[in-house]
Structure formats: C-alpha cells, structure tokens
C-alpha cells in the first residue's frame, strides 16, 4: 500500500503500532515507534533504502509492516479500529508524541524487530541491540 488518504500521518503510525506492538505496554509501543522513526531517518541518510522518508511512508511501504497488506489477517482490524479502544488510544497518543519529537530512541538505532516467539531468517545471524517486552530489536539489517 503506497498511500492512504483516509488517515493522517499520526493515525497511520498509531494503527501500525496497534498491530505491531499488540500485547505490549507503553515501553513496547515506544520501542516500535522508535523503529519507525529510525527507518525514516535512515532513508533520509541513505536514499537507496526501501523505506520512506516520513513515518507514514515507512509504515505503508510494501513488505515492511504486514498489517498494511490487504491479504494480512490484521489488515481489516487496522482499517476498522474502534477509536475508543484503550490500546488504540495509547498508540495514538504515542504516535503524536513521537511525531512531535518527544520520544527518544529506546532501541539503540534499531530498524528491525520481531517477536521472540518467531525466528525470521534475516535475524538468525544477528545479535539484538535491545529487548523490550516480547520483542527483539536489530540494526544494520541489510
């Protein structure tokens, strides 16, 4: 999905956080938003990367966050979130704070992460730079 005019940048980031940090508390949500911000910063520094230059572009870029893939089971949930859902409200507040520069990088520059209960091929040769909740974080994944 390249763009979605239905949602603001903060809402795109919040919906991504909702899907990707589900089951995590505030620290996990802040860690995932750090990854999004780190990818946007890296894309500006290294224009050849596949990431977008804004947090919304990073979230919507194909093959980056599965929740934006229309074939993903989480896509419909992300598209039809209840605005009064407490976890979504946490994600929305966190996205807003992050986009205004009020969240510091809690994952040591990581641009990738996965849940501990999965073992993606790309992570097998790497050492995590952070572990927050049930998530492992990596940088220099190229």
SSE map:
Elements: H1 9-20, H2 26-45, H3 55-60, H4 75-79, H5 86-99, E1 112-115, E2 130-132, E3 135-138
Antiparallel strand pairs: 1-3, 2-3
Written description of the protein model:
- This protein has a domain at 9-106: Cell wall hydrolase SleB, domain 1 (Arc Repressor Mutant, subunit A, Orthogonal Bundle).
- It contains five helices and three strands; from the N terminus they run αααααβββ.
- It is globular and about 40 Å long.
- The longest helix has 20 residues, at 26-45.
- The chain has helices at 9-20, 26-45, 55-60, 75-79, 86-99; strands at 112-115, 130-132, 135-138.
- A hairpin with a 2-residue loop joins β2 and β3 (135-138).
> Residue ranges: pLDDT <50 for 5 or more in a row?
none
Note the run of SSEs as H and E. HHHHHEEE
Shape: globular
- Strand residues, percent: 5-15%
For the record, the CATH class of the domain at 9-106 is Mainly Alpha
CATH architecture of the domain at 9-106: Orthogonal Bundle
Trace the largest sheet across and list its strands.
Answer: 1-3-2
Question: What is the share of helical residues?
Answer: 40-55%
By DSSP (H or I, 4+ residues per run), the number of helices equals 5
- Tell me the CATH topology of the domain at 9-106: Arc Repressor Mutant, subunit A
Overall structural class, as computed from helix and strand content, comes to: mainly alpha
Separation of termini?
22 Å
| Name of the CATH superfamily of the domain at 9-106 | Cell wall hydrolase SleB, domain 1
Largest sheet: 3 strands, antiparallel
In total, the number of strands is 3
Radius of gyration: 14 Å
Q: For the residues shown, what is the average pLDDT?
A: 91
